[in-house]
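Q: What structure does this chain adopt?
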Amino acid sequence: MTQQVLVAGGTSGIGLATAHAFAARGFAVTVTGRDQARIDKAGLPGVVADAATDEGALATFGGGARYDHLVLALGGSLGAGPLAQLDLGQLRAAFEGKFWPHLRLLRAALPHLAGAASVTIVSASSARAALPGTAGLAALNGALEALVGPLSVELAPVRVNAVSPGVIDTPWWDGLAAADREALFASFAAALPAGRVGRAEEVAEAIVALATNGYITGTVLPVAGGVQLATGAPSSSR
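A:
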């Protein structure tokens, strides 16, 4: 029987690449998106739901399907900056836009997960990279990663893991002017052992690997080009 996959946030960036990676392997993939236009552009079956505000819509999950794999790839762009200048209102909004939607969606999904399903959370390397100007992002993504261990025990035999991307070339960076983005990527490439920034498809491959390996649970997998080893990296990391 074809396995069912739900990718929350599957209409852009890492989520979209993950949805297509599963589909290419023959899985039946459903994505969530904030509006039908995003879902149509993704080219995959979808459920319109904003995990930040619409818990009722999430509870339906496409008519009661049972999912073998759940990927939580909900993004956010707030929370960066030196502590002395950090807008705490924006940091609160960052949690409202990413941490709580992940938790809310996972809780709503529990009745719809198969007995030996996998859950994969997409956090970010800021949780552990210890770069200046990322304390807010570290708190946000560290909170997501802190869920992995307890939930992998609590929800067993459902497996819970996370992928922790580093600097990935996705629409997350679209707020920067093209020249600034190119310069920032070049500076990261010079500092990273991998010698370049990452691609969404590379993170997607790691997510599929975690989701389909039945002996991996409670694990946070960095896909970050060695950012934890980098020196002199810029401070505006994910």
